[in-house]
Amino acid sequence: MLKRILKEIRGRKASTTILILLPILFFLLSLFVGRYQIPPDIVVLTLISKILPISQSHNIPKQIEITIIQVRLPRAIAATLVGATLALSGTSFQALFRNPLVSSQILGVASGAGFGAALALLLSGDLVIVQISAFGFGMVAVAISYAISRIHKETPVLTLVLAGMVVGALFSSLTSLVKYVADPYERLPSIVFWLMGSLSGVSFKELSWSFIPMIASCIILVMVRWRMNVLSLGEEEAKALGVDVEKMRILVISCCTLMTSAAVAIAGVVGWVGLVIPHVCRMLVGPDHKILVPASMSVGAAYILAVDSLARAVSTVEIPLGVLTAIIGAPFFFYLLRRERLGWRWK
Amino acid sequence: MEMEVKDLYFSYHTGREVVKGVSFKVRSGEIFCVLGPNGCGKTTLLKCLCGILKPSKGSIFLDGVEANSIPKTERAKTIAYLPQEHMTFLPYEVLDFVVMGRAPHLSIFSTPSDKDYEIAEEALKEVDAYHLKDRPYVELSGGEKQLVLIARALTQQPKILLLDEPTSQLDLKNQAIVLGVLGKLARRGLIVVMTTHFPTHAFLHSSRVGLMVNGRFLAVGEPEQVMTEENLKKAYDVDVKVLTVKNPLNGGFIKMCIPTEVILARRCFCKFEYTEGGS
Questions:
Q1: Burial of B110 (0-12, 13-18, 19+ CB in 10 A)
Q2: What confidence tier does A347 reach under pLDDT thresholds 50, 70, 90?
Q3: Chain B closest-CA separation from residue A335 CA (Å)
Q4: Cβ contacts (< 8 Å) between A1 and chain B: which residues?
Q5: Which residues are B160's β-sheet partners?
Q6: Best B105, B111, B116, B118 residue to mutate vs chain A (most A CBs within 10 Å)
Q7: Which residues, other chains included, contact B163 with Cβ-Cβ below 8 Å and sequence gap of 6+?
Q8: Among the ranges given (B6-20, B28-42, B128-142, B260-274), the one the predictor scored with the smallest mean pLDDT
Q9: Which chain A residues have a beta carbon less than 8 Å from that of B138?
């Protein structure tokens, strides 16, 4: 027994340390990087001055403080949350649907939220309303998918996925309709930019409300993570093992929808994270969800933090986050596909 | 422990009735074989017994308690079910796979403890598959997979083991290993209910047999009484000879079934004596 634990620690010590340090490293990095050049020591000093009362002795310019505390810090926190939740919901859905091609958007969250945001941008343009509308429509889309799939009282996984595709297509065309009627000089650009996904302009005010659904869902999913192993065996076997499959499914889908909707509401449509990160993590730590779930949160957070830093640093004009995640994600996924078998066996 | 099935019916949503009034009783230490042609409802019957499917009529009593009144998790602590084909997509390590059998014993928010891993390791030792514990499940051979599945079922610490054709995809050696393990478990007091396509297995390994045709039991009881040439002919619609073979090890007798056509085609190379009617 002790041997097993020791072996586990030895085998996983390195990866555990890396998985804890990775997001912290990229979090700090994203505070240092930006168009407005601030020396690293000043950044550190500013952060410390917020916790310890030393600001009197070192005179930190107001502008630097605002840049770091009001702009970069909320943005880094948002990136962490968005990355962790998108990757976690991708991992959960891949286990739940027993399908490696499924991502956090399979049930139409992103399409619904995209439509909600586009509609709000068309009608009002107030950022808070846009976020709430995106959040609401994201959940409405999943609720419709789930309702459609329940025609036959029970919910077979296949019906659910198909219903998600139908609802996703419906909301995508509704978004196109909104774009079509939008004023092409004022409203349309903001809709298009929103749909590309970006973390620019995130403030503590926006984070304050989306923080709660994201953290709560993450905690619940982390707590039930071992059950995802059992769910991934398939409906019948999970039932035979005494698991209430229908209840678990509703729980996982609700949590994923809640946090994905919140993530999309803050960051817009950021693709590829929910699909690629779970595969990367499965290669790093194996398929056991006991470890895979925390790992995917860590890697997801680090990935979005890194990509967002890149989006800000690479050129004078910020590249939309959603565009960059796909540009980096797609070839990387292809590389993994060639190298390994993604930890899935089709048999 | 005793499981009693009384007049069990099951029909799918489409209205097709698959199980039509099955009754039988099994006690601790018995191996009960369900025999019957393809599509006669054997698998459906097992799924009803373990609670994956809800019978439309009739009852299952576990020590006199109606099974459908028992909560799902409690039921899974008593009954373990092994599907015919396990399709897993994720390459779980065998120990991680086996420990999933602890699911009914663990609350929804917990992960298996050291104690649970110990139980899983014990189960693997029980079926002589401990050496496989670090291998990915998907890379195992058919026989190894079956043993690991049995270990997972044992990790549930059940009193009843339901197996759907545990030997149908195994070679001769692995059949012997799996059936040997099942015999050992039954002797330790488990109820083993299994479906099989090999009448000879039923003769060799089971204490009681249910011969199923079209959703009903044609006959239930001791193998010798149930598996007569007449009954097998009715069930499988093929002429069968029940042969009695001298056991070379202890001088007793062993029965086996061979379709008459096969014997004729081979021009009866067999030098065994066989008697009509399987007496």
A1: middle
A2: very low
A3: 20
A4: 114, 117-118
A5: B79, B191
A6: B111
A7: B46, B81, B82, B150, B182, B192, B193, B194, B195
A8: B260-274
A9: 345, 347
Q: Could you tell me which CATH number the domain at A2-344 has?
A: 1.10.3470.10
Reported ipTM exceeds the 0.85 cut: yes
Phi, psi of B193 (to 5 degrees): -115, 120
Q: Does B107 touch chain A (CB under 8 A)?
A: no
Report pLDDT digits (tens) over A108-163.
Answer: 988 999 999 999 999 987 888 888 999 999 999 999 998 888 876 666 778 888 89
Chain A to chain B Cβ contacts (< 8 Å): 93
Q: Mean pLDDT, to the nearest integer, of B5-25?
A: 90
- pLDDT, mean over chain A: 86
Measured between beta carbons, the chain B residues lying within 8 angstroms of A227 are 103, 108
Q: pTM of the prediction?
A: 0.88
Report which residue type is found at A8: E
pLDDT in tens, A278-336: 988 888 888 999 999 999 999 999 999 999 999 888 877 888 898 899 888 888 878 87
Are B101 and A233 in contact (CB < 8 Å)? no
Say if residues B199 and B227 touch (Cβ distance below 8 Å): yes
Q: Is any Cβ of chain A less than 8 angstroms from the Cβ of B118?
A: yes
DSSP secondary structure letters along B6-65:
EEEEEE-TT--EEEEEEEEEEETT-EEEEE--TTSSHHHHHHHHHTSS--SEEEEEETTE
CA–CA distance, A268 with A195 (Å, rounded to integer): 6
| Sequence ranges of the domains in chain A | 2-344
User: Which residues on chain B are in Cβ contact (under 8 Å) with A4?
Assistant: 117
Contact A81, A211 (CB under 8 A): yes
Residue type, A15: S
